[in-house]
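Ticket #4471: structure export looks truncated?
Reporter: QA, pipeline team
Priority: medium

Steps to reproduce: submit the single chain below to the structure queue and open the exported record.
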Amino acid sequence: MRRMLCALVAAIAVAVAAEAAGPVERTYNAPLDRVWTTTESLLKHLGWDIDKADRSIGYITTESRKIDGEDYGVYAKGVRHRLRLHLKSAGPNRTTVTVERSVFKRERILFVDDDEPITVTDTDVEKALLDQLAKTL
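Actual output as written to the record:
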């Protein structure tokens, strides 16, 4: 009985950790065009530079930002993160926004970046962005 209980607790812990590490999603009562424009403006206002945006498929990817480390131009070593947002219509005047953050270690030597993904479980950055978007809309 004790082993089954331990196994159940372990399975729940793994499921919660896996769920927390995934993308964060929220649906807004606003049309897609308005949410798209507001999202681009908000990202720029918050200091996220947009790397790629394709409105036809609903994706925005930001440039990576430094979390920790050193950057001397030709040499850099530290931890960085970037956001990928997916905006899709969820019906008339409703839009769903999904935010996924990737965190990685970067070492740059002579303009060659070596990135190594890091697994994180917190979603504070994603939730804060979606909260701010709700206030802005």
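Status: closed, not a bug. The export was complete when the record was re-opened. Leaving a note from the reviewer for reference: DSSP finds three helices and seven strands in the chain.
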